[in-house]
TrEMBL record:
Name under which the protein is recorded: N-acetyltransferase domain-containing protein
Superkingdom of the source species: Bacteria
Family annotation (InterPro entries): Acyl_CoA_acyltransferase, BcerS-like, GNAT_dom
Species assigned in the record: Endomicrobium trichonymphae
GO terms for MF: acyltransferase activity, transferring groups other than amino-acyl groups
Span of domain N-acetyltransferase: 170-341
PROSITE patterns linked: GNAT (PS51186)
Length: 341
C-alpha cells in the first residue's frame, strides 16, 4: 500500500518535521546501469536518542530496494560509512526515522496488510540485510484482538472492582474536544514518563507533540482516547485509532484533488482499530489501572461497532504489556525485526 506522497515528503522535510530540530540525515539512492533508481536509504543521527539513552548509535531508515544483494549492500555501506564520518560506529534500523514513528522489517505476517502507521516490507529484505552481515537486535510484536469477544468483560469487571477499591480516587474519562489542548499536555506527560525506561525510547519534544496533535486531531475518535486520573492527576493513557489504511489504500498515495472524497467515504466503513499507546506511570503500575482502561476502551469500541483491534507494537521483552494483551485474548499475528551491526 503506497503511503501518502505528501506525508512522505513532510516526514523528510527539515522545514516541516520538528524531529530534524534534534537530528540530521543523509539520503542515498542506488541506480542500475541505466541510471534507473533501484533502492534508497537514509542514514540518521538522532541526538536526543544519543543523549537520553546514553547510546552513541546511528540509524538507517526508509530502506527500499529491489531484490539485489549488491544494491542493498551498497546502500547499507553508504549509510554506515556516513555515520562513521560523524564518529558513530554502531548502526541499527530500520527507523523511519525513530521508534516514535514506523520502524522494523516485517518478519512474520506477510499475508496480511499493514495497520495504520505500521510498516509492510517484503520477506527478502530480511535476507538482504542478513547477507550484508547485520544481526537481529530486537523483535517487536503486533497482537490481534477480537473486540466482539465479550467473555473478557466479566473477568475485567472483577479486576476493575479491586482496582477501584485500592484507589478510591481513580477516575477514568475520555478525551474531550473542548479540552483538547489540556488533554494533549496530559498525554505528553504520561507518554514521556511511562516509556522512559523502554528500549529505544526517545521522549517527544514540545514541538513534536504539537505537530503530531495537529495531524491526528481530525483522526482521533474522542471515545477511544482513555485517560486515567488518580487524585486529580493524569497517570495513564490508552489511545486507539481507526485503521485508516483501509481508506488510504484506495487513494494510491494522493489525497488531492479527488482522493479526499474517497477517504471521507471509506473512513465510515472502517471496523478495525489500532491500539497505539497504552501506559501507566511507574508509581501507579501493578494497581489494575491498565485493566480499568482496557474495560473502558473495550466497551466504547463495542458501542462504536468495531470488530477487531491490533495492539502494536510491543517489545519482545515487555512482559507486563504482553501479559495484558494475552489477558485480553490477544494473539501475536505479526512480528517485526530491528537489525544492527
Amino acid at each position: 500500500m503506497p503511503p501518502l506522497i505528501s506525508d512522505a515528503e513532510e516526514m523528510l522535510s527539515e522545514n516541516k518535521n520538528p524531529f530534524w530540530m534534534h537530528a540530521k540525515k543523509q539520503l542515498f539512492l542506488a541506480c542500475d546501469d541505466n541510471d534507473s533508481v533501484i533502492g534508497r536509504i537514509a542514514a540518521i543521527i538522532d541526538y536526543n536518542y544519543i543523549t537520553f539513552q546514553d547510546d552513541k548509535c546511528g540509524f538507517f531508515g526508509f530502506f527500499e530496494c529491489y531484490n539485489d544483494v549488491e544494491a542493498a549492500g551498497s546502500l547499507l555501506s553508504s549509510a554506515k560509512n556516513w555515520l562513521k564520518e560523524q564518529n558513530i560506529d554502531r548502526m541499527i534500523g530500520p527507523m523511519n526515522p525513530s521508534t516514535n514513528n514506523e520502524c522494523g522489517f516485517l518478519s512474520e505476517g506477510f499475508d496480511m496488510p499493514p495497520s495504520f502507521m505500521m510498516t509492510y516490507t517484503p520477506r527478502y529484505y530480511l535476507r538482504l540485510v542478513e547477507q550484508y552481515g547485520l544481526k537481529k537486535v530486537k523483535e517487536l510484536y503486533a497482537y490481534n484482538m477480537e473486540v466482539s469477544e465479550d467473555s473478557r468483560i466479566d473477568r475485567l469487571k472483577r479486576v476493575v472492582a479491586i482496582a477501584k477499591k485500592k484507589l478510591p480516587s481513580l477516575e477514568i474519562r475520555t478525551m474531550q474536544e473542548s479540552s483538547f489542548e489540556e488533554d494533549l499536555k496530559a498525554v505528553k506527560s504520561i507518554y514521556n514518563r511511562a516509556w522512559e525506561k523502554n528500549w529505544g525510547f526517545v521522549p517527544w519534544s514540545d514541538e513534536e507533540i504539537t505537530d503530531i496533535a495537529s495531524k491526528l486531531k481530525t483522526l482521533i475518535i474522542p471515545q477511544m482516547v482513555i485517560i486515567a486520573e488518580a487524585a486529580g492527576s493524569p497517570v495513564g493513557i490508552l489511545i486507539s485509532l481507526p485503521d485508516y489504511n483501509y481508506a488510504l489504500k484506495k487513494l494510491n498515495g494522493r489525497l488531492f484533488p479527488f482522493g479526499i472524497f474517497k477517504f471521507l467515504y471509506y473512513r465510515k466503513k472502517i471496523d478495525n482499530l489500532r491500539l497505539i499507546v497504552m501506559g501507566v506511570i511507574k508509581e501507579y503500575r501493578h494497581k489494575g489501572i491498565e485493566a480499568v482502561m482496557y474495560e473502558k476502551g473495550l466497551k466504547n469500541a463495542l458501542k462504536l461497532g468495531y470488530k477487531n483491534c491490533e495492539l502494536s507494537w510491543v517489545l519482545e521483552d515487555n512482559i507486563m504489556t504482553r501479559r495484558s494483551a494475552e489477558m485480553m485474548k490477544g494473539r501475536i499475528y505479526k512480528k517485526y525485526a530491528i537489525y544492527g551491526n
